[in-house]
Backbone:
C-alpha cells in the first residue's frame, strides 16, 4: 500500500473477495481524508473517487454517502463547483436511503443535516438536526448545528431555546465544558442581536 504512488489495484482480491473490496473502500476513504488533511487535495480527490468506485463494485454502498459528501467538499475547494454539487446531491440521496434503512439513527440524520446545510437548504437541515436531537438528546454537536441553522434563518428565539435545552441536557450528564460552549454561543447571539 503506497499512498504516495497511488493505491494498488483492488481487483486482485487475493481470494478474500468482497470483504477485501469493502475494506479497500474504507482504506481509500481514510487515505483520502489523510491526504486532504495534509493539503494534498488532488490526491485526496483521487483516493475518494477510488473509494466510491470500489464501494460500487463491492455492492455495499454503506459508505457512499459520506464519501460523496467529503468528495463534494474537496471538489468545491479545488474549484470544481459543478462536480461538487453533483456529489453533494448524491450524498443527500444516499443519506436519505441510509435513514430509510436505519430510521432511529441520529447519526444518519445529523449527516443529512450537514449535507443539506452545505447545499444551503437551512430549513431542511434544521428538520434533520431536530430529528437528530430527538433521537440522541445528549450529543452537543446536534444542538449546536440546529441552533446554527435557526440563526442562519434569523430564527433567533428558536436558536436560543435550542442552546438552552442543549446546555441543560449536557449539564445532566456532567459535561460542564459543553455547557459553557452553549452559554458562550447564547451570549454571542445576544450581543449580535441587541433587541433580543
Residues:
Amino acid at each position: 500500500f503506497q499512498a504516495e504512488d497511488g493505491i494498488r489495484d483492488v481487483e486482485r482480491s487475493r481470494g478474500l473477495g468482497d470483504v477485501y473490496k469493502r475494506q479497500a473502500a474504507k482504506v481509500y476513504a481514510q487515505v483520502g481524508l489523510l491526504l486532504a488533511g495534509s493539503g494534498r487535495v488532488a490526491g485526496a480527490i483521487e483516493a475518494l473517487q477510488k473509494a466510491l468506485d470500489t464501494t460500487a463494485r463491492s455492492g455495499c454502498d454503506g459508505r457512499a454517502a459520506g464519501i460523496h459528501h467529503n468528495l463534494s467538499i474537496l471538489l468545491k475547494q479545488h474549484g470544481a463547483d459543478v462536480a461538487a454539487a453533483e456529489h453533494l446531491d448524491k450524498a443527500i440521496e444516499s443519506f436519505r436511503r441510509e435513514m430509510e434503512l436505519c430510521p432511529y439513527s441520529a447519526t444518519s440524520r445529523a449527516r443529512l443535516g450537514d449535507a443539506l446545510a452545505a447545499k444551503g437548504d437551512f430549513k431542511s437541515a434544521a428538520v434533520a438536526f431536530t430529528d437528530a436531537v430527538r433521537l440522541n438528546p445528549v450529543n452537543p454537536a446536534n444542538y449546536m448545528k440546529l441552533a446554527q441553522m435557526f440563526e442562519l434563518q434569523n430564527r433567533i428565539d428558536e436558536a436560543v431555546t435550542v442552546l438552552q435545552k442543549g446546555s441543560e441536557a449536557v449539564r445532566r450528564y456532567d459535561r460542564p465544558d459543553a455547557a459553557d460552549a452553549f452559554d458562550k454561543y447564547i451570549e454571542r447571539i445576544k450581543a449580535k442581536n441587541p433587541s433580543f
In short: Confidence is low (pLDDT under 50) at residues 1-16. DSSP finds nine helices and no strands in the chain.
